[in-house]
Design brief:
InterPro entries: Alkaline_phosphatase_core_sf, Sulfatase, Sulfatase_N. The chain is of the alpha/beta class. The chain contains eleven helices and 16 strands. The protein folds into two domains: about 350 residues, Alkaline Phosphatase, subunit A (3-Layer(aba) Sandwich); about 60 residues, Arylsulfatase, C-terminal domain. The strands form three sheets. It has a ten-stranded mixed sheet with strand order 7-6-5-4-8-1-9-10-2-11, with helices on both faces. The chain has a four-stranded antiparallel sheet with strand order 13-14-15-16, covered by helices on one side. It has a two-stranded parallel sheet with strand order 3-12.
Length: about 475
């Protein structure tokens, strides 16, 4: 009888200790989850390096983005994944540069003429953050599911999606339909040709606000992918008022595929300022919810600008850089980048750390307390964000490839050196410390350095049947 009582007491103690242990572990897990920052990655579409005030813009008003810069950290050497939308976004999501990414060009620029999406084997930053307990959302332009298959956001780690799966529908600000998760919804009264109905930018902003309201009690990742200021140029008349009667020359826009408003300069500026205002409202929302101190906000653009006429610049959208969208010169791939995180990132700081879109995935993973589960090209810039420069690992070099009408083009940046190569032409070499505008090709002056970077150009990619580096023409559908 005594033996039975002893055994019963031992079993009770085991159960009690096990319960206490589980509760302690649960508390530890809850503390760990609570300490993870919310992450909001805001991506403008075709916004130039010089289109924001903190990079010298003096015509377009961007006070809220400039406030993020003044109270956060500006990266002066940050690069996009590519010089056009699709591959740049694929690189951002997967942490692999265009020499290794599944998507290396926009939908129609494949060998077969059929679009290529990211696939089931690709591991996105959303999938990684799901492992760390995050709720994940993408609102706006996705552009990596042309085939509406494995590339769909809800199949790539996102709990919630509202926006454009494909590129062409995202060209219009009054679309007839929009996707919410995997359901295609009709927007009543919208006509992309007459620009009647609801301007999609406002719906995107509304859904971003709703996502934060609904998911702010636990760590969340919001990829807010605006379509502004991508062509077509159109915005509500009330947004243009601040730019009227300033004596600006008129740049008349002719509607075609893109249903532009007539006055390009005023419309472009008003679009950017509208986005800026709504970013400011998002920041106010975070502050009102008590989330600002535990939220990392990143703002950047997917590639260089398209609007500003390089022959007759008005906004100086690419700053001191050469080229714009579809170039692998600096103007096509270096874009504005600011990171804001109160009491974590030093206010008013700048860094010349050389980084790129493929670094975001490992950065998010590090901040979430996990390691990337796939082989990637990116290096976390979390040490730089947190002021631990002595712990910051650096890239040996950065690599890009791009193949549309002028292609194939490849580029490499290593330290202050930049190499650009067009198809079978000799490699171009630039010293960015002395020649930020890439005006003086010094390949003959520094042949050994040119050969060193050419080696990286020739040995930094895996073959992809849909994206061979051979001259191609656009296949007609």
């Amino acid at each position: 009888m005594k033996l039975k009582l002893i055994i019963l007491n031992i079993l009770c103690m085991v159960l009690i200790l096990g319960t206490i242990s589980c509760k302690i572990k649960q508390v530890d897990v809850e503390k760990e989850v609570a300490s993870k920052p919310n992450i909001i990655f805001i991506l403008a579409d075709d916004l130039g390096y010089g289109d924001v005030g903190f990079n010298g813009q003096d015509k377009i008003k961007t006070p809220n983005i400039d406030k993020l810069a003044a109270n956060g950290m500006v990266f002066t050497n940050h690069y996009t994944g590519s010089t056009v939308c699709g591959p740049s976004r694929a690189v951002l999501m997967t942490g692999k540069h265009t020499g290794h990414a599944t998507v290396r060009g926009n939908p129609r620029w494949t060998a077969s003429g059929n679009p290529v999406d990211i696939n089931a084997e690709d591991v996105t930053v959303a999938e990684e953050l799901k492992r760390a307990g995050y709720t994940t959302g993408i609102i706006g332009k996705w552009g990596l599911a042309e085939n509406l298959g494995d590339g769909l956001p809800n199949k790539q780690g996102f709990d919630y999606f509202y926006g454009f799966n494909q590129h062409s529908p995202a060209h219009h600000y009054y679309p007839k339909t929009i996707f919410e998760n995997e359901n295609e919804l009709t927007i009543e009264g919208n006509d992309p040709q007459t620009k009647e109905g609801q301007h999609i930018h406002y719906l995107i902003t509304e859904k971003a606000t709703e996502f934060i309201d609904k998911n702010h009690k636990a760590p969340f990742f919001l990829y807010l992918s605006y379509t502004i200021p991508h062509f077509e140029l159109t915005i509500l008349e009330k947004e243009k008022e601040q730019y009227k009667n300033l004596g600006w020359p008129k740049r008349k826009m002719t509607p075609g595929h893109y249903r532009h408003d007539e006055d390009g300069h005023i419309t472009y500026a008003a679009m950017v300022s509208t986005m800026d205002r709504d970013i400011g409202n998002l920041l106010k929302q975070l502050e009102s919810l008590g989330l600002a101190d535990n939220t990392l906000i990143v703002f950047t653009s997917d590639n260089g600008h398209e609007y500003d006429d390089l022959q007759n610049e008005f906004f100086n959208s690419n700053g001191d850089f050469k080229g714009h969208k579809r170039d692998l010169y600096e103007g096509g791939i270096r874009t504005p980048f600011v990171a804001y995180w109160p009491n974590k990132i030093k206010a008013g700081s700048k860094t010349n750390h050389i980084s790129a879109f493929w670094d975001f995935l490992p950065t998010a993973c590090e901040l979430a307390g996990i390691r990337p589960s796939d082989k990637i090209d990116g290096i976390s810039y979390a040490p730089t964000l947190l002021g631990n420069d002595n712990q910051q690992e650096k890239h040996n070099y950065l690599y890009w490839e791009f193949n549309e009408r002028q292609g194939p083009i490849q580029a490499v940046r290593k330290d202050n050196w930049k190499a650009v190569k067009f198809d079978k032409k000799p490699v171009e070499l630039y010293d960015l410390n002395q020649d930020i505008s890439e005006q003086i090709n010094v390949a003959e002056q520094y042949p050994e350095k040119a050969q060193e970077l050419l080696h990286f150009i020739n040995n930094s990619r895996t073959e992809h049947p849909e994206f061979p580096l051979v001259k191609k023409t656009l296949k007609k559908k």
